[in-house]
Amino acid sequence: MPSLIAAVVIDELVRNGVKWFVYCPGSRNGPLGFELARRARAGEIKFQVRLDERSAAFVALGITKAGGQPAAVVTTSGTAVSNLLPAVTEANYSDLPLVLVTANRPPEVLGTGASQTVEQTALLTSQTRHVQQVWSGESFGPEANGILRSQVCRALGIGTGQLLGRPGPVQLDVPLTSGLPPAGEIACPPGRSDDAPWIRMPGAARRTTSGSTAVDLRRPTLIIAGDGTDPAALPPRMPVMAEPTVELGDRKRLHPWVLDYVDPEQVVVYGRPTLHRNVGRLLARDGVRAVLASGPGDWIYAAPDIEVLSGNPRFHGEADAAWTEELGLTDAIVRGQWTRVMNETADRIGLGVARAVLAGLQPGDLLWLGASNPIRDVSLAGVVPAGVQVLSNRGVAGIDGNVSAAIGAALSAPDRTVVALLGDLTFAYDASGLQTGQLEQVPGNLILVVSNDAGGGIFELLEQGHTRYRQEPYGDTFERIYGTPQRVDIAQLCGAYDVAHRRVELGDLGIALRQERLARRLSVLEIPVARTALRDVHATARQAVDAAFASASAEVADAALELELQTPELTGNLEYS
Fold this sequence. Notes:
This protein is an alpha/beta fold. The protein has helices at residues 2-15, 30-41, 53-67, 79-82, 85-94, 142-159, 278-283, 321-345, 350-359, 373-381, 402-412, 424-429, 458-461, 477-483, 490-496, 509-519, 534-566, and strands spanning 20-23, 46-49, 72-75, 99-104, 130-133, 170-175, 214-216, 221-225, 240-242, 266-270, 289-293, 308-310, 314-316, 366-369, 389-392, 418-423, 446-452, 500-503, 523-528. The chain folds into three domains: 2-183, Thiamin diphosphate (ThDP)-binding fold, Pyr/PP domains (Rossmann fold), CATH 3.40.50.970; 214-329, 3-Layer(aba) Sandwich (Rossmann fold), CATH 3.40.50; 349-532, Rossmann fold (3-Layer(aba) Sandwich).
């Protein structure tokens, strides 16, 4: 009986588009594991075994994010399920259809104190779209087959957004009477003909608002695109301040600091722009009309400062040429000063690593960006080359699971080179993601670039990093609770997992990237950089940009004065006949 249930669950998942399964060893989920192994041998699915459920869930998340199709993580019962929570939370806030297949003890032993029995259908409910405990009757006939398959279809329909409109993680809890392997060849009860799902879905649902909002582009308008933005929804021919994970094609991408030096009358926000604080400051300005182009999500970005929530803004009119020219000139000034400052100082900080990584990318590559500074450094240091896809865990923007998720992305796209830019703490936090069984596929197309500044560099730029908090009476407290330098030897850590490692100076990173691209192996490039200089570099860049705009304003004022002096003054009365 357990093997029949496992066969039907896996079969219906495959029919609903799940082709990747990440499996965590356990006793209770054994029937699911045997069925997955059988289908993998037949070439019907992709199959990876991972020891750590937390890491496995992020591998599946990376596969889902890179491939655009739901992937499944399969676990045993008990605390194994609770270890899925970090990845499930990220999938929830990123609207990713991650599928959780959790084996469970039979219902009749739940609540009896039996080993490994927890309320696992309630563990993840705050972060999942749907939890379905599947059929677990005593006999298995045609009726049971239909019930079980329809339950899987409903869960996948909700998870992919075909039923409720917002994709996200779903849990299929599978009670199994034992974890014993099948006694012989299992004849899976038949599904629909032509490998179709048991229930065909009508397509992704679309939630609409009661009305759309008119946006007149003749007014000075700024477009902001955060993570999760659909590029097709953006107004054509308008420059956009977009986060690195938003693909803009040949559209003009504005530097984030442009927001600090222009005065739009209205701002239209797409997605979740949580990377730069100046977005919130701009929306809070008096006289700025803030329009949020809402997606299918059930939460509203920057709600206190949003004036209008619109499901589908209607753009009309053409942007004034003087306004778009101002945006372009402002962007040029900001980028010019940033380039000058980085040329003088970025050889010793993470910004230089980001710039070198961007220079080493090629069309078709996939760039995975870690949280905290790496994604911000890319946003500030340059522009992602055309044809490069950028992914990052921006749902809840945590450092957890980035190594594992990057591995999942590389497994999902074996024909592409995947470069992951991570900080040292992000890497160390998920270093167990490098652990791979001897019989498992290791992605030979993944290069992990670790910008090692010996601690938490992001706090150097936050309020806590101000000089006054790094002196008495605080003493070493900042370094202890924010800097948090670690005694981790990255080379030895990689050696323990049999992963290639090289410690490279920043000036040699471009060459090292080219060499690792050709080597076709999972590798780690460790780049030593300074952390304490980061705040000063940002302050220097700000001063340079401020000075450049002050100089430009003075030149404009001088030109206006000269024009006024050259214009003859009209006096007396004019008579017309």
